[in-house]
């Protein structure tokens, strides 16, 4: 990255400014720190860098480098305002960084690297804060990177070049910058993403943590190298990004220049971080978040997490109410959701506590993470909350009428007591019942700590007439005994014809029908009787009493058990009309719905899985066949080059077919060996015989020619008379239908060549495509008596090689 050879950073007098800002923050808050004031201190000032503090193998700790919560957007903006206090926009030049804005497109998440970042017009501070948070790279690191690469943070006159090459990404010292990454936002994001790439694959780069690394002093290799033991991934990332280490001359003049072999990038990074934020390798302040604040009976419950980047040990969290220290606890509960931020083995940093004896009214709560070691305490959150007193409160959650029954529910609490309260239910202004709000409501107890869970109420009222009604609930104040309105709802008791829904009319398999739906009569909560008709003729009557999840929610008070299901076999093929009739109860009339459907029909569905030659004169073919009109096995015929050579039935079990064709079963596969096939390539077809509607289905495949060595069988090798040798057998070459030449050797010497063209019973049957004339027989005389070896060779034609068969006999 280009700025490694420049000494772009000078000592910046920001320490006093930052200290003043921090002091003002505490002064304005008006907090009284009480008994733990020493633990709630403000952010400490950074210290000036000295060369003795620089460790080339530990430039910055992983905790500081990968802390994506180091600074908020407002904190970054405050820092830019201070660091660039003397910046003035030149005429025609770009804005100072503190005032800079850029329209950024949304950035999608990169798995294992950075989360998504929304688009929009953003300030430089917002971009830095959002990129740091999304990628888990400290905003402090990004600020220092911007300064050491282009001095853009503290410059008094920014240039367009500074913004185009802000972090020096894709700007090697030995080549031009890549314009694809020009622009401030692009540079900041690309650098952060690159650091995450280094972290995700630490052994894929030239410089690695946990080992000695030979690092150049300068792009000029003649300047030599230094052996550096890199202790952590963050330091390794800096060297990969800027691959040089400072020499003694660069360190001797920490705020100036060294010699011709000096490089300054990593020195300046360490120096600037130290000047601005303190030690890069230690002194990190706690981080954390207050997740929720729930006010209850004279108490509030606070949950969140807090951790110190300098240690994995749990730290203490301090709570202040109205500036007075209230409680200190240890944040040591396990929070698995922190694994992605803090590491899989560093998740015991959660907290949840209830602060009691809090008076009624509005209060201010501040939560601090108490620092361990170097660094400073961190203000995690300050927010207002209120403790209720006075009138009771609660929620009138629901009111529903089913038939003549009204059901109401909710919860109520008197803020001055933990005991139950009385709730009145009024219908059209008339009190109908009074109930005690004492049933378990865990959600209420969690939301309002200290009161307990038992503040729920419910009631059922019968005799509700048809039409609209106003329902009111009132809660009684335990002190004054006055009734306070809790809530009002309008309900209408439905009446009339049944609600009828027909979800499905179908035929999934031959001769079957399936009817499914639900029905409710508004005048009763009981199940409705449903009549089913097929093509105008009554089939059956069933009760709509099956469970359909969600019905009770869609029609409150009636419950889920109002579905119906009817299935029947023996339905003829073709198109049909199915009707369902819901039988009315009370006012209203029956309801009916009709729908047409068709049972499956058509030609067989035939597939070929595999077709291949299988030796002389045969082809093996496999696949499946299903006729939509029947569940029975499909009759099959098989043709080769248009000639039917075999028949069969597709009745072999194949489990996957039961899933592919629901309702038809698995027994519809076939595997057929077809004989009587001659040499050469062929077209083989599987033909499914149609049943019912449709026609036969033929599916064909090309099959390569049978090929290879000749087949040679010796029926006889003997010596029938003195000095004679008789050889008899047959041979076929799969590549041709013609006769094969056979050579006979006796005692290793050629004796005779014959043609295998004699007729042999059975060959024409077994290998019909090759004919029956493939036998041979010869008798050779004048042979010396005694043991001898007889070898016969079938001479190959086409692909393959000769076939040899030998026998040892005794010549008479």
What does this protein look like?
- The protein is α+β, with helices and mostly antiparallel strands and 812 residues long.
- It folds into six domains: 254 residues, no CATH class; 101 residues, Immunoglobulins (Immunoglobulin-like); 101 residues, Immunoglobulin-like (Sandwich); 92 residues, Sandwich (Immunoglobulin-like); 99 residues, Immunoglobulins (Immunoglobulin-like), CATH 2.60.40; 101 residues, Immunoglobulins (Immunoglobulin-like, Sandwich).
- Helix content is 16%, strand content 38%.
- Strands 8-7-10-11 form a four-stranded antiparallel beta sheet, with no helix packed on it.
- A hairpin with an 8-residue loop joins β25 and β26.
- α7 crosses α8.
- The chain is flat and about 130 Å long.
- The N terminus is likely disordered.
């Amino acid at each position: 990255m280009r700025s490694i050879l420049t000494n772009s950073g000078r000592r910046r007098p920001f320490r006093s400014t930052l200290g003043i800002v921090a002091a003002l923050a505490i002064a304005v808050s008006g907090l009284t720190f009480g008994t733990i004031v020493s633990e709630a201190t403000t952010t400490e000032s950074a210290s000036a860098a000295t060369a003795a503090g620089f460790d080339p193998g530990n430039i910055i700790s992983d905790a500081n480098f990968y802390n994506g919560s180091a600074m908020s957007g407002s904190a970054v903006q405050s820092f830019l305002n201070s660091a660039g206090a003397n910046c003035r926009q030149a005429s025609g030049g770009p804005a100072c960084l503190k005032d800079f804005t850029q329209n950024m497109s949304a950035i999608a998440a990169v798995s294992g690297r950075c989360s998504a970042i929304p688009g929009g017009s953003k300030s430089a501070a917002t971009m830095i804060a959002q990129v740091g948070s999304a990628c888990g790279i400290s905003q402090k690191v990004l600020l220092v990177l911007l300064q050491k690469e282009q001095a853009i943070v503290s410059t008094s006159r920014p240039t367009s070049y500074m913004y185009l090459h802000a972090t020096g990404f894709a700007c090697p010292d030995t080549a031009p910058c890549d314009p694809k990454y020009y622009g401030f936002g692009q540079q900041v994001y690309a650098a952060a993403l690159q650091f995450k790439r280094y972290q995700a694959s630490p052994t894929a780069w030239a410089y690695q943590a946990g080992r000695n690394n030979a690092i150049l002093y300068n792009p000029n290799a003649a300047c030599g190298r230094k052996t550096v033991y890199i202790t952590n991934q963050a330091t390794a990332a800096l060297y990969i990004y800027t691959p040089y280490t400072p020499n003694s001359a660069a360190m001797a003049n920490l705020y100036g220049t060294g010699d011709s072999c000096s490089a300054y990038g990593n020195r300046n990074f360490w120096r600037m971080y130290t000047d601005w934020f303190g030690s890069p390798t230690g002194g990190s302040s706690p981080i954390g978040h207050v997740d929720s604040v729930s006010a209850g009976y004279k108490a509030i419950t606070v949950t969140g997490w807090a951790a110190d980047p300098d240690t994995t040990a749990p730290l203490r969290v301090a709570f202040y109410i109205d500036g007075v220290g209230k409680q200190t606890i240890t944040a040591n509960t396990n929070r698995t959701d922190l694994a992605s931020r803090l590491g899989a083995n560093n998740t015991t940093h959660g907290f949840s506590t209830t602060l009691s004896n809090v008076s009624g009214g509005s209060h201010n709560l501040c939560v601090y993470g108490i620092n361990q070691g170097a660094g400073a305490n961190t203000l995690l959150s300050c927010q207002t909350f209120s403790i209720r007193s006075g009138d009771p409160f609660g929620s009138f959650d629901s009111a529903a009428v089913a038939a003549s029954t009204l059901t109401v529910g909710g919860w109520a609490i008197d803020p001055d007591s933990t005991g139950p309260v009385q709730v009145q239910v009024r219908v059209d202004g008339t009190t109908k019942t009074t109930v005690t709000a004492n049933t378990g409501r865990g959600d209420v107890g969690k939301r309002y700590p200290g009161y307990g869970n038992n503040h729920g109420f419910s009631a059922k009222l019968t005799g509700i007439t048809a039409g609209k009604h106003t329902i009111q609930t009132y809660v009684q104040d335990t002190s004054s005994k006055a009734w306070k309105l809790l809530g009002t709802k309008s309900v209408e008791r439905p009446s009339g014809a049944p609600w009828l829904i027909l979800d499905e009319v179908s035929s999934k398999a031959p001769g079957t029908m399936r009817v499914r739906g639900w029905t409710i009569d508004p005048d009763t909560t009981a199940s409705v009787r449903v009549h089913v008709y097929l093509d105008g003729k009554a089939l059956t009557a069933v009760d709509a009493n099956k469970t359909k999840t969600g019905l009770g929610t869609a029609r409150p008070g009636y419950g889920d058990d109002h579905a119906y299901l009817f299935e029947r076999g023996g339905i003829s093929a073709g198109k049909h009309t199915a009707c369902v009739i819901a039988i009315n109860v009370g006012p209203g009339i029956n309801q009916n719905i009709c729908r047409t459907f068709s049972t499956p029909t058509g030609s067989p569905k035939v597939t070929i899985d595999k077709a291949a030659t299988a030796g002389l004169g045969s082809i093996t073919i496999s696949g499946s066949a299903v006729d939509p009109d029947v569940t029975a096995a499909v009759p099959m015929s098989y043709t080769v080059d248009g000639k039917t050579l075999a028949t069969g039935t597709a009745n072999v079990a194949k489990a996957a077919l039961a899933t592919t064709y629901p309702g038809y079963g698995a027994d519809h596969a076939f595997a057929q060996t077809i004989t009587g096939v001659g040499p050469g390539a062929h077209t083989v077809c599987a033909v499914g015989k149609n049943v019912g509607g449709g026609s036969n289905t033929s599916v064909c495949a090309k099959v390569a020619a049978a090929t290879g060595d000749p087949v040679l069988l010796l029926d006889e090798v003997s010596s029938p008379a003195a000095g004679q040798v008789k050889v008899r057998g047959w041979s076929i070459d799969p590549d041709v239908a013609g006769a094969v030449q056979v050579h006979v050797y006796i005692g290793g010497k050629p004796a005779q060549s014959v043609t295998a063209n004699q007729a042999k019973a059975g060959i024409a049957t077994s290998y019909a495509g090759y004919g029956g004339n493939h036998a041979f027989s010869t008798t050779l005389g004048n042979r010396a008596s005694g043991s001898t070896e007889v070898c016969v060779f079938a001479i190959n034609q086409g692909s393959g090689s000769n076939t040899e068969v030998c026998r040892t006999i005794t010549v008479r």
